[in-house]
Amino acid sequence: MAETDPAELERRIERTRAELAETVDAIADRVRPKNVARRTVAKVEANAKRFVASVGDRIGDAVGVPPRPVTPAGEPGDDLWAEEPPGLAPVLIGVGAVLVVGAAVLLVRRRRRR
């Protein structure tokens, strides 16, 4: 008899309506352009940080500099570079020199072809 009780049916309908409204609000919040943009920016930022760190590690491996320790944001960590931070100036100077020499070689080759 509980199934046909109009008061019970109204309560169940109202409960289902409230649950549906919550679900629709959650979906609307998830697809709101501002929130989508915020999540996308955070994801791109995290990927860029990982990319820069991996490039830095590869350059460090190439020139013999030990990799920099990474600690999650907000956590205290041992700062191994406090006493003697590695100098990237020699690496950057070397990369610049390679680029200048490469550009000069390309220019000389183009002029010889003419």
Rg over CA atoms: 30 Å
Please report the number of helical segments: 3
Which structural category do the helix and sheet elements fall into? Answer: mainly alpha
Question: What proportion strand?
Answer: under 5%
Helical content class: over 70%
Largest sheet: none
Got a strand count? 0
Q: What string gives the helices and strands in order?
A: HHH
The best one-word shape is elongated
Runs in which pLDDT lies below 50 for 5 or more consecutive residues are none
Average pLDDT score: 80
Gap between N and C termini, in Å? 99 Å
Describe this structure in words.
This protein has 114 residues and is mostly helical. Helices cover 72% and strands 0% of the residues. The mean pLDDT is 80.
